[in-house]
Specification:
Layout: H1 4-8, H2 14-41, H3 46-63, E1 71-72, H4 78-109, H5 121-138, H6 140-143, H7 155-164, H8 171-190, H9 196-211, H10 218-222, H11 239-271, H12 277-293, E2 300-301, H13 303-311, H14 318-338, H15 343-357, H16 363-367, H17 371-386, H18 389-411
Antiparallel strand pairs: 1-2
Length: 412
């Protein structure tokens, strides 16, 4: 359970420090607009995403069991966070996240990190695909520049609300949003090592600010971003709220644990390392206790940002610390500029994120899965979209374990 930073610093040198700083700055440039976009999609204030990347990201790198893990808000939480805020408000989200952090701390101390191997792969892929679908649909309103009330949390009512708003589509906003998606996907294929997400979002925002006055940006809709971290505040906690939010807290803890450990595994494969799963869970617990106190969202290891860190040369937790500090510096010195990011471009960024989450390169292999595994994947995705993420995870895991047991009995 020893944090990786204690292992790497004794042999740390200037050559690696330079590489880590460059990687940290690169990841911060990607994480800044993405964190704002995730917060907006979650129904939270834009600054909440930045706070999560700063506070959660710093603690995940400082205490975590991976050399290169980058922590912060991720798309996987959008569905859960949006629903909690709609039903219980932002204080309810803070309480649920605090509970999730405590659960993760206990899980790490009990050395539960290796239990991830018992969650069936079709379940993980199914709810990831389901979340990607929900994220993409939830961005249609901002992508098309529609004006009207906020969208409902449930999927089918959300589709009805979008249909009702179809008459308010803004051509300029739609052009910015769709063009952002197309340009990101094209340039990412041509020169994959360049962080095109941030380049395209900034470029689209500049065009919108100069020539397209009807296109909304972060500040015009939500007000100015703060120029620093807020003072930590403990939310009001009541016994009834704790009981009501326990299923949500378990879901947040499960998602944070699963995504962070999967991210650590991916990073190990990329650089030949070996993460410490229990230390990683403890770090996730600390991050999810601290983040809501500062007004942040649930935090976890982010697979795409971690991969960006590795590709940029990051090899120790220092890169993750630099990433968090650079975002803090941007908040302190450049909050007005960050507030000028165009909402359709941010929506386009999240649509690309959803597309990446669905791992389209794996679709053919998924269709060739055994029928039972494919059915479990589709059922989990279906329940994630149309029912509830907690139900999808719980039912999918139980069915998957039963399926494994039956297959083991048949093969025996």
């Amino acid at each position: 359970m020893k944090p990786k930073i204690l292992t790497t610093l004794p042999r740390y040198g200037w050559h690696q420090a330079r590489a880590d700083v460059l990687a940290g700055v690169t990841v911060a440039l990607v994480a800044l607009p993405l964190s704002i976009a995730i917060a907006i999609a979650s129904g939270a204030p834009p600054a909440a995403g930045l706070v999560t990347a700063i506070v959660g990201g710093f603690l995940i790198s400082f205490l975590g069991g991976s050399r290169v893990q980058i922590g912060g808000p991720t798309g996987a939480f959008i569905v859960v966070v949006y629903g909690v805020i709609q039903e219980h408000g932002f204080d309810g989200l803070a309480v649920a996240t605090l509970m999730a952090g405590a659960i993760l701390l206990v899980a790490g101390l009990l050395r539960a990190g290796r239990l991830i191997r018992h969650v069936p792969e079709p379940v993980i892929e199914g709810f990831t695909i389901g979340i990607a679908i929900v994220i993409a649909v939830s961005q249609i309103k901002d992508l098309a520049g529609m004006r009207g009330e906020g969208l409902p949390a449930d999927f089918l009512p959300k589709l009805e609300a979008l249909w009702a708003l179809r008459g308010s589509i803004d051509v300029a906003a739609s052009t910015v949003g769709v063009s952002s998606i197309a340009v990101i996907l094209l340039l990412r294929q041509l020169v994959p090592k360049v962080p095109w997400l941030v380049v395209v979002v900034i470029g689209a925002s500049v065009v919108a600010a100069l020539a397209l006055p009807s296109v909304e940006n972060v500040t015009s809709r939500y007000g100015a971003l703060p120029d620093g971290l807020p003072v930590p505040v403990m939310p009001d906690v009541e016994a009834e709220m704790l009981i009501a939010l326990l299923p949500t807290a378990l879901t947040i803890a499960f998602l944070a644990g699963i995504e962070s450990l999967l991210s650590a595994i991916v990073a190990d494969r990329m650089m030949g390392g070996a993460h410490r799963s229990n230390a990683e869970l403890i770090a996730q617990g600390a991050a999810n206790i601290a983040s809501p106190l500062f007004g942040g969202l649930p935090a976890t290891g982010a697979i795409a940002r971690t991969a960006t860190n590795v590709n940029a040369g990051g090899r120790t937790p220092v890169a993750g610390l630099v990433h968090a500090l650079v975002i803090l510096l941007a908040l302190l010195l450049a909050a007005p500029l960050a507030g000028k990011l165009a909402l359709p471009a941010l929506a386009g960024l999240l649509v690309v994120t959803a597309w990446t989450m669905s791992e389209p390169h794996r679709w053919r292999a998924r269709l060739q899965l055994p029928r039972a595994d494919l059915a479990l994947l589709v059922l989990t995705a279906f329940l994630t979209v149309l029912a509830d993420l907690t139900i999808a995870i719980a039912l999918g895991t139980v069915l998957g374990l039963v399926l494994r047991f039956l297959q083991g009995r048949i093969s025996a």
